[in-house]
Amino acid sequence: MARDQVVTPAEPNMPRFTGWLRPVVDAVARVKAGVHRKLLFGFLIGALLLVAMGLLSLLVIRQMDDRMIELDDAQAKAGRAQEMLYAVTAQSHYRAMALLLPDDAAKYNGQVEDAKATFAQLLDELHRAEPASATFYENVRTVNEDYRQSGERVVAFINQGRIEEAKGVHLAEEHPTSHKLEKSMRALMATAQEDMAGAQADFRSARDLFTGMVISFSAASVIVALLLGFVLSWAFILPVRKMERALADITAGNFDQRVDVPNRDEFGGLARGLNSTSERLATLFDDQRRLATQLGETNLQLDSALQESLRELQRRAEELQASRARVVAAADAERRRIERNLHDGAQQHLVALAVTVRLAQQLAATDPDRARDLLEQLGHDIQDAVQAMRDVAHGIYPPVLMDRGLVAALESAATRAPLLVEVVANGNMGRYPQEVEAAIYFCCVEALQNASKHAGEGAVASVTIGRDVGGDGREVVTFSVTDDGAGFDPAETAAGGHGFVNMSDRLGAIGGTVEVDSEAGRGTRVSGTVPIDGQG
Questions:
Q1: Which of 88, 167, 265, 477 would staple 181 via disulfide (CB 3.0–4.6 Å)?
Q2: Considering the chain, what is the average pLDDT of its residues?
Q3: 525 in helix, strand or coil?
Q4: Fold (CATH) for 22-243
Q5: Sheet architecture: strand order including 420-425
Q6: Burial of 63 (0-12, 13-18, 19+ CB in 10 A)
């Protein structure tokens, strides 16, 4: 995003109608614990709520189970009482049938015994189920025992065939006792019905109570979980939004932004780090702005230096072009000079030699003495021609320079100079590349020729050569030609002097330099240096 398009987020606020929770959110943020521990605490609270909900559910299930057991017990008690009442009634019915049908008495008496056994079994079960009602059941057991004994007497009479006596015992003892048992069973059934009604009422009451408890606890758990999640989340959201706002401002170039959060967790550390980064960026921005200013100034200086360098390169290019033109012109002039010297010197000698040879051939037969004189003269002319050829060759490249080196060549040139010349070599000079020796030699000869022309009569010159180390660390050959003559003003003469230009061009071609130091009345000094490797 472009810098002018950066949108700064609004100041972070909590959702509507939740401002009253801000102190709680800040308090949670100020807790000295990491984000992981705070989240773990929130998860732990949620887990505890789930566990509590599970325990409450188990408690409700257990209580409801107890109520169901009570209700089942009441129903079982009522059912057994009903069965016992039926067993008592069945005994009376079967006994009456045995008395009315003596032939089948055995069958009906057997059914009476079965009913008695069922009654006794159910009585034992009720007694064991309700030990608190032991007195009632003992009384029932006593009445049942009387009922059993009276029944045994009735059966005894029936077995003896004494039916009328059996009926009398039945009506006088057994039947009234059965009514007592029926009365007790009806009372037991009434008690069981009351217990069952009470158990049902308790079950409905417990169900309503526990349902309310579960709903209330569930609602409270949900509210606590929501509040806890809200507080924890906003304890993290607020610093994140503040840092987002600060980052947006920093992105927009406002490095004065600071994030102030109450958090003592990772978000607090992140806010402090962001503040440090903002301060560092502000410092770097100031440094960058200062460096940009300095860079602008440096660019201006470099531009000026570049323009100056370009002008210098242009000047040197022009000088190089002029130097090349001068080299070509000098080469042409040198060829013309050699041609002129050959034509005016050696060629004339050779022509004269040819004429003398032809004349000697003509006189050899007629005038031997004259021919002999011509031949003798011819020998002298041949020596003059050889010397003329040597002079021409010496002007091109001195043989002594090629054979014996720079010092010997300069000493030879000194002997031919019109003025007195001293050659001084500092140290063992040795031999150098041909182009180095030639450049130094011809520069020195050029300087001696200038001294011969301009120093005046009686002037003395000296040529000094040596070895040294240049400013770039390379080894160089140094030379100087000094005279004590009239001297001159370099500002008026050197720039336009043909000899000095030739020296500068010759040395510049192999990386050398030449300087002229002169003053009217104090003589002239021409000095220069040439790299030994002959490379600029």
A1: 88
A2: 81
A3: strand
A4: Four Helix Bundle (Hemerythrin (Met), subunit A) (1.20.120)
A5: 420-425, 460-469, 475-483, 524-531, 513-518
A6: middle
